[in-house]
Amino acid sequence: MNAFALILLAFLAITFLQSGYDKIADWNGNVSWLKGHFSQTFLKNQVPFALLTVLALEIVAGVLAIMGIAENIMSGATIMGNYACVVSCVTLLMLLFGQRIAKDYDGARTIVIYLIPALIGVYWL
């Protein structure tokens, strides 16, 4: 059992499953806000599809993180945890891209705070 892996994967599971839940619980509110956020970009007509894509990746990342926790506790392996970190990085890069396109540089900076631990996980797991 690797305490670093367990803590990192718990962080990713909490982050992405809560974010996914929020998107599901307030789908219309999220779509409405994001349409305004991207209204001056080439993504303005792609908001529902983009949000669904991010939602799917967040759920996958969160589930993989939980699977990684279970795998690490049971066998000490980190394969699922590594997959969770990779999917998390892909998801965060998509979010970062969107924030940069929308010229929301503070939002982009915030995403980097989440990207750093995910990248460390890719490296160490």
UniProtKB/TrEMBL annotation:
The UniProt keyword set, sorted, is: Membrane, Transmembrane, Transmembrane helix
Q: Which residues cross the membrane?
A: 49-70, 82-101, 107-124
Q: Does the keyword Transmembrane apply?
A: yes
Question: What InterPro entries does the record point to?
Answer: DoxX
Cellular localisation: Membrane
Q: Pfam families of this UniProt entry?
A: DoxX (PF07681)
CC annotations in GO: membrane
Primary location recorded for the protein, binned into one broad class: membrane
Q: How does it sit in the membrane?
A: Multi-pass membrane protein
What is the name of this protein? DoxX protein
Source organism of this protein record: Flavobacterium terrigena
